[in-house]
Amino acid sequence: MSGNARDDNMLRTLIVSIPAEDVTAVRELLAMLRAVKAEAAARLGPGPSRELEAVEELIRLAGACCEPSASLELAGPPGLIRDVAYGLLLDGVDALAEVCRAYEDGQSSLTDLTRAGEAAARRVALMKRVEERDGWSAE
Length: 139
What we know:
Largest sheet: 2 strands, antiparallel
Helix content: 55-70%
Distance between the termini: 27 Å
Number of helices: 5
Mean pLDDT: 86
Number of domains: 1
Order of helices and strands: HEHHEHH
Strand content: 5-15%
């Protein structure tokens, strides 16, 4: 190994299954992540960016999943897989908070609230799987 934790993390591969309900959101997150990594690579100057290449590979994998009702197997560097799972988690929690406010204001149904809660719980479970597979935990 190189001795550099960032490089070592880019050499490892983590595989996680994304539930079908979250595949579209993953594709959107990956597009945003590509833009961020491309901007960072441009600041570093010419030459290949391993992180940008890894994100582009994840985008390729996500694009290969054609069935809207199919789950998606993502395989890539643990840090990038974690970024995807964390982005999904944040989006799910934000959506739940928004539906909670709408429900309290009488603008949303209990069914909508339940759906948002289930989606947030599914994303927490995904984050847990990523942490368990990567061996990372704050505990």
